[in-house]
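Bit of a strange request maybe. I'm writing a small parser for structure token strings and I need a real example to test against, not something I typed by hand. Could someone generate the tokens for this chain?
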Amino acid sequence: MTTTSATTAPAAAQPLLHQRGEEIQLFGTVKQLPIALSHDARMYACQRLNRLLADTQMLYGLYKKHHWLMRGATFHQLHVLLDQHATAQLAVVDALAERVQSLGGVAVGDPRHAAEITSVPRPPNGVEEVPAMLSRLLEAHETILGDARDAARKVAEQGDDGTNDMIVSEVIRTGETQVWFLAEHLVDTPLTHVRRTATHREDGEARG
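Reply from user aminoacidic:
Good idea to test on real output. This should exercise your parser:
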């Protein structure tokens, strides 16, 4: 006869651990939802959204990696900025995933799965110089923005105004602003003097 220890929780309180089950919806499929949008339009939108979702997850990872690895005279400024950008991209990740689900699809959620379908090149495992890290982020943004513009146009042609609005308002506008902030850090600008160009010299001579 099996006895229960006084220190063991009763069966009714015990979590049912190590459960596994069959997939009830396969990735790449859409279920029917009463949203007045055709199966084909929803299928196409989910495919494009999942590609953007995978790329945006990689961009988020790049931002966190470079946030941690930042160095040099602008360390604090860029350390904070990259973390702010990462937080904003994480919100975009969530918006993309929820749009896929609202269309009846299955959002790519496992980073290993995202890595299989992303178009964003993998960075080296080690540390690059700061300008190279910023350039890599800008290139990832450009990849995503190019795909987002194309996707926004094509889903709109299929009558999917919700996906078009989400891509434009979340992916494109966020990305464009972040590109602006990053790109300005790569302008080679003197901090303590004005560059002496030929025009400056001519102006000075004329005044003299």
